[in-house]
């Protein structure tokens, strides 16, 4: 039986030699033996104009993990109304946070930085790449790129601290769809959610301390805002709500704040269905109306700043607070591709690669 020697560096992803004898001259090149790590996040449109936004929204809102409304109801609503009206306003929202230097959304810029930072930390022991569930770079193409570099074992890392079917599960679905088309599939692992990992909790708490230290005021209330999902998803068994609440509690305890000072809320709801409560936007307005003059918001459920944090939290909710009597408002950025964020990702990756490295 032929035995191959695994490559040890990026330059070694050439046709491999055997230990016992060279391959026959007419044997096709064989690349294998390396470990790949694929970081994945939600996605971003390729541009802010109507058609790029429409393509992105169509892919995102057609995912049955995201929208569980029966197809007979959802298809005409999506294609005849939402995809006609929403691309314009949503494109303007994206334009307000767009990375004009790279001509891309901030989520793409930061996720690339996370992958590059992880590669530097891991060295040549693994090949690190990144992909988006919706939009580009496509997951199937990046999995193939890892295979082309000799990776026959791949760790998929959904960059969502809290598990939800609409985020983590659909990322797995997309990866498995890619594998379904392959004759020679790589071995695939999926990293677990890390909502209560001590390294993650400490990183969030540290980032909040550092963010608060930069302010020239002390917030009376701090909200930990997580992306919302319909309440029906919780009732069907999705653990997302419980994991968000646990993260919020652990961060609050790490900081020594009371439940009155640091509160957990849920944002980004749309449609008429009830979502997880309390709602971030309503809470912000109620705080201002009740006399709170100084507040801050942090988004520990997002591994990278994106439209929902930069435009919705730091933009819309800032206006809600100030328009209802609030005076000082601060948004504390996500961990992103800074030292704290990379430490969390590296910790998760090294733990999940045990037995391979």
From TrEMBL:
Catalytic reaction annotation: heme b + 2 H(+) = protoporphyrin IX + Fe(2+); Fe-coproporphyrin III + 2 H(+) = coproporphyrin III + Fe(2+)
MF GO annotations: ferrochelatase activity; metal ion binding
Chain residues that bind Fe(2+): 227, 308
Transmembrane region(s): none
Start-end of Polar residues biased regions: 8-20
UniProt subcellular location: Cytoplasm
EC number in record: 4.98.1.1
A GO biological process held by the record: heme biosynthetic process
Matching InterPro entries: Ferrochelatase, Ferrochelatase_AS, Ferrochelatase_C, Ferrochelatase_N
GO cellular component term, pick one: cytoplasm
Main location: cytoplasm
Database matches in Pfam families: Ferrochelatase
Sorted UniProt keywords: Cytoplasm, Heme biosynthesis, Iron, Lyase, Metal-binding, Porphyrin biosynthesis
Function: Catalyzes the ferrous insertion into protoporphyrin IX.
Family, as annotated: Belongs to the ferrochelatase family.
PANTHER family linked: FERROCHELATASE (PTHR11108), FERROCHELATASE, MITOCHONDRIAL (PTHR11108:SF1)
Protein's recorded name: Ferrochelatase
Organism: Methylobacterium gossipiicola
């Amino acid at each position: 039986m032929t035995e191959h020697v695994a490559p040890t560096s990026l330059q070694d992803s050439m046709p491999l030699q055997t230990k016992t004898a060279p391959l026959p001259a007419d044997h096709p090149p064989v690349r294998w033996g390396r470990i790949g790590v694929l970081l994945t996040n939600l996605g971003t449109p390729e541009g802010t104009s109507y058609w790029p936004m429409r393509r992105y929204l169509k892919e995102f809102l057609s995912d049955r993990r995201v929208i569980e409304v029966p197809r007979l109801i959802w298809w005409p609503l999506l294609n005849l109304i939402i995809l006609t009206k929403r691309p314009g306003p949503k494109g303007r929202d994206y334009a307000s946070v767009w990375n004009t230097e790279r001509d891309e959304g901030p989520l793409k810029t930061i996720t690339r930085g996370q992958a590059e930072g992880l590669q530097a930390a891991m060295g040549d022991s693994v090949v690190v790449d990144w992909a988006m569930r919706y939009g580009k770079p496509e997951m199937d193409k990046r999995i193939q790129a890892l295979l082309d570099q000799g990776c026959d074992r791949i760790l998929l890392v959904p960059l969502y601290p809290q598990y939800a079917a609409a985020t983590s599960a659909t990322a797995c679905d997309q990866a498995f769809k890619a594998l379904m088309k392959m004759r020679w599939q790589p071995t695939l692992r999926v990293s677990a959610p890390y909502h209560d990992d001590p390294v993650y909790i400490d990183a969030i708490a540290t980032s909040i301390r550092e963010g608060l230290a930069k302010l020239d005021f002390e917030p009376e209330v701090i909200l930990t805002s997580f992306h919302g999902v319909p309440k029906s998803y919780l009732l069907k068994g999705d653990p997302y709500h419980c994991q968000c609440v646990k993260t919020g509690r652990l961060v609050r305890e790490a900081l020594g704040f009371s439940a009155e000072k640091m509160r957990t809320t849920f944002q980004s709801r749309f449609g008429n269905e009830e979502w997880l409560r309390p709602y971030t936007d309503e809470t912000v307005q109620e705080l201002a109306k009740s006399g709170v003059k100084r507040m801050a918001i942090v988004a520990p459920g997002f591994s990278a700043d994106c439209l929902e944090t930069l435009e919705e939290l730091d933009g819309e909710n800032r206006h809600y607070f100030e328009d209802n009597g609030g005076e000082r408002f601060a948004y504390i950025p996500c961990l992103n591709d800074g030292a704290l964020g990379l430490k969390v990702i590296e910790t998760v990756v090294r733990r999940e690669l045990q037995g391979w490295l």
